[in-house]
Design brief:
Layout (H helix, E strand, L loop, with lengths): L6 E2 L10 H7 L16 H21 L6 E4 L2 H15 L6 E5 L4 H13 L3 E5 L9 H7 L4 E5 L13 H11 L2 E5 L18 E5 L10 E5 L28 H39 L3 E4 L9 E6 L4 H7 L3 E2 L15 H5 L4 H5 L1 E5 L6 H20 L2 H7 L13
Parallel strand pairs: 1-11, 3-4, 3-5, 5-6, 6-7
Antiparallel strand pairs: 2-8, 7-8, 9-10, 10-12
The chain binds pyridoxal-5'-phosphate.
């Protein structure tokens, strides 16, 4: 049997849209085109109805209420609004924030800017060798002037899922706002802002079979009521937090994407995890010196991140043109730095450079998995056959004791 190539195994960078999502969006481009803020006619009412429905669908997936959903252009905007909005609104209460070392690139970049230009102080909390944050470490990092804790729910590179309820409890007890970038977690694993004590949460449509350029920010309204300084001023849409005409088709698509995820999650996560395990075990059975990065007990069902010792991840990807994979996160592929997430696990720079992320999804098949396993094994054997370091290691030479010319 021949298989259609290239094969997509980069679902954590972006997902294809589910055709059902496209169906849900179509009416709002041409026929039902009204402005949802037009209160005086039925064109507006029809658009508003679509937006209201989407708000319910998004809220339902994460355990919030419709009035707590602010539509954005994606996770990056949600991150900016949440963190900058809190920094500005609660400036009098304090100017300290706490973040995990494995949080997403946009979160870290926003904090860096606030540190540099706006007098904010940031404490970065480490992770264990599997990428997990200890709630105790968060607690110890808190100060009387801490105004926000940010811990991403599930990591985009290694898939590690954090103990959100434990961290949420620490934040509640201290009265500190708890923000999470849940764009990799939502729709894949259960998310419940109540049980997890989350005050602010961002998601992106295109990580969950929805459209690109649309996302949502959950903003808690009760216990406590979180207030945000808007970062885009204008007509006062989205309860003043995010001005600008709502992307009605996009929002309808995001809502449908959330509804589908909610409906399919239990079964889909089982099926995809079984495929992921088949992939991982297929590779591990045939290749030695491969490390699984992350936490195999607390991991997204569709992710595996492997380090292939003595191989450059980039070389491996270049040799496998029929397979779409990632050697870093989507946000960092512009640079050739080894992944800061893998480095945070205590992995050496060499091994971090040899890591590859496989991410599967709704449309991945067993045939595709078997094809990729075969390709990976061939590539690893090929590259290692050319690697003097691998040869030396196999001959029993301890590479750490070798004197390199030029050292
Ligand atoms: C994709 C992603 C983002 C960026 O989302 P956009 O909607 O593209 O802005 C942020 N954080 C994480 C964890 C992501 O996976």
């Amino acid at each position: 049997m021949t298989i259609a190539t290239p094969i997509y195994m980069d679902y954590q960078s972006t997902t294809p849209m589910d055709p059902k999502v496209l169906d849900a969006m179509m009416p709002y481009f041409v026929d039902t085109f009204g402005h949802p803020a037009s209160r005086n006619h039925s064109f507006g009412w029809a658009a508003e109805e679509a937006v209201d429905k989407a708000r319910e669908q998004v809220a339902s997936l994460i355990g919030g209420t419709a009035r707590e959903i602010v539509f954005t252009s994606g996770a990056t905007e949600g991150i900016n609004l949440a963190i900058k909005g809190v920094a500005e609104m609660y400036a009098e209460k304090g100017r300290h924030m706490v973040v995990s070392v494995v949080d997403s690139r946009p979160v870290l970049d926003v904090l860096k800017r606030l540190e540099r230009d706006h007098n904010l102080e940031v404490t970065t909390v480490p992770v264990d060798k599997n990428g997990r944050v200890a709630a105790e470490d968060i607690k110890n990092a808190l100060r009387p002037d801490t105004i926000l804790v940010s811990v991403m729910m599930a990591n985009n590179e290694i898939g590690t899922v954090q103990d959100m309820a434990a961290i949420g409890t620490v934040c509640k007890e201290a009265g500190v706002i708890f923000f999470t970038d849940a764009s990799e977690a939502a729709g894949k694993v259960p998310v419940d802002v109540q049980a997890m004590g989350i005050d602010l949460l961002t998601i992106a449509g295109h990580k969950m079979y929805g459209p690109k350029g649309v996302g949502a920010l959950y903003v808690r309204r009760k216990k406590p009521r979180v207030r945000l300084a808007p970062q885009i001023d204008g007509g006062g849409h989205e309860r003043g937090m995010r001005s600008g005409t709502i992307n009605v088709p996009g929002v309808a698509g995001l809502g449908e994407a959330c509804a589908l995820c909610e409906q399919l999650m239990a079964e889909e996560s089982k099926r995809v995890a079984a495929l992921r395990d088949r992939l991982e075990q297929g590779i591990l059975a045939e290749c030695d010196e491969v490390e699984v990065n992350g936490d195999t007990d607390h991991r997204l069902p569709h992710n595996t991140n492997l380090s292939f010792a003595y191989i450059e991840g980039e070389s491996m990807l270049m040799g496998m043109k029929d397979v779409a994979l990632s050697s870093g996160s989507a946000c960092t592929t512009a640079t050739l730095e080894p992944s800061y997430v893998i480095r945070a696990l205590g992995v050496s720079e060499e091994l971090a450079h040899s890591s590859i992320r496989f991410s599967l999804g709704r449309f991945t098949t067993e045939e595709e998995v078997d094809f990729v396993v075969k390709q990976v094994i061939e590539s690893v054997n090929h590259l290692r056959a050319m690697s003097p370091l691998y040869e030396m290691a196999k001959e029993g030479i301890d590479l750490s004791t070798v004197q390199w010319k030029g050292d």
